Prior knowledge:
Shape: elongated
Order of helices and strands: HHHHHHH
Low-confidence stretches: none
Radius of gyration: 28 Å
Largest sheet: none
Helix content: over 70%
Number of strands: 0
Number of helices: 7
Strand content: under 5%
Amino acid sequence: MSNMALLLRSLARQGVCLSRPQYGVLCRHAAPMGTTAKEEMNKFWAKNTKLNRPMSPHITVYKWSVPMMMSITHRGTGVGLSGAISTFALAALVLPGSYPYYLDLIHSLSVGPYLIGLAKFGIAFPVSYHTYNGIRHLFWDMGKGLKIPEVYRTGYTVIGLSIITAVAVAFL
């Protein structure tokens, strides 16, 4: 039970009426309930402990699936992209110099084409994945592609398109 429900229950037992003062007479003479919420909660947990039930939802209860992993990845890429864009914008405002200065600084590091390609892929994959999966979610919002085989098919399509797009961008 929520904390608010427990608070309201305890106030009702003490005869306090929160809604309207003119109805306070009705609340003062309310009969107490049989058990308290704390007692009910204790009975619930005792039963679950005795039956050796796991706390649910728990990560061990569910079988991992492609849609589950894609949902987690979609949320992660959204948070990551928001954080990266915010950090880049803040850096652009605070750091001295201009964009060409920092671009020349990166070129002067001589990190090699493989590391630059990996960095490009690392930036392009979350952007392309979040974009394609967002389009997939828009179709779901329209009620299309919600059957389980379609969910898996579109999921694999999003993953494939994201990899192809990220590799193509990395080779630019």
